[in-house]
Amino acid sequence: MSSHALVMPRSSDRGEARRTARAVAVVKGGGALGGEPRVSLLPTEVNDVAKARAARRRLGVGVVFVLLVVLAGVGGAYYLSMTAEAELASARSNQTSLLAQEAQFSDLKAAKVGIATIEAGQYVGASTEIDWTAYLESLQATLPDGVLITNVAIDSASPFMDYAQSSSPLEGSRVATLLFTATSPGLPSIPSWLDGLATLKGFADAVPGSVNVEGDGTYVVNITMHINSDAFALRFPGEDKK
Q1: In Å, what is the CA distance from 64 to each residue of 57, 67, 102, 204?
Q2: Eight-state DSSP code of residue 216
């Protein structure tokens, strides 16, 4: 027989080839029973290249996404920065406008400050003021007919210093002391005089002093009277609340 004669495979060899192909198909199909067998005839390098290409595509998409997030953050920060700068510029402009308007009324403001200072000085200066002219007229009116006040000495409180108080618990608070001398044509009734003094506004207490008889028969009486804060004139509104 010629050496170029066609050699037909034996039936046993063909069966072995079919079983091998079926086993490969089962492995490629993931072991699924009843599925259509598929066999990849491509080289392993081709599959690796395809997998690498897919991984690069996923990586590229991820990089683009991160870049977009970063750009969005930068844009947001820039917008907030510009908004803050605009608000700051607006606030500075308003401040400049207010300062300019305030400068227009600087004279008026200075005048108001001056008036307030004067009013404060009036309150302080008049806080311990007593209208002594009116008070002495009222005191004279409490004395009997014919009795005249001939001498007066006054010691009153100062706006800058508390008035000295008595150490005796029986004597009330005082803001002034009035010592006066009165002459009476007849024997004076000191208790009646003291009762009349008690009707005066601001009366705290009174202590009779010496009683002397002059050559013409008149009597000279010395009385020390203490006055409390009810006698203050309060010439300015609101002084009673100070």
Answers
A1: 11, 5, 57, 97
A2: T
DSSP single-letter state for residue 201: T
CATH number at residue 163: 3.30.70.2830
Angle between the 132-142 and 190-197 helix axes, to the nearest 10 degrees? 140
Q: Are 226 and 200 in contact (CB under 8 A)?
A: no
Beta partners for 31? none
In a domain, 86, yes or no: yes
Q: Which of 3-7, 89-93, 238-242 has the highest mean pLDDT?
A: 89-93
Encoded tokens for 162: 């508390």
**Number of Cβ within a 10 Å radius of residue 221:** 19
Give one DSSP letter per residue of 72-104, joined into a string: HHHHHHHHHHHHHHHHHHHHHHHHHHHHHHHHH
The residue range of the domain holding 136 is 132-233
Q: What average pLDDT does the chain have? A: 78
Could you tell me the end-to-end alpha-carbon distance of the chain, in angstroms, rounded to an integer?
147
**How many degrees, rounded to 5, is the angle at CA 172 between CA 171 and CA 177?**
85
| Tally of CB atoms within 10 A around 175 | 21
The stretch 3-23 carries a mean pLDDT of: 49
CB 206, CB 197: distance < 8 Å: yes
How much is the CA Rg of the chain, to the nearest whole Å?
59
Q: Residue 12 domain-assigned? A: no
Structure tokens at 54: 């897919």
DSSP annotation string for 231-242? G----STTGGG-
| Domain-located, residue 71 | yes
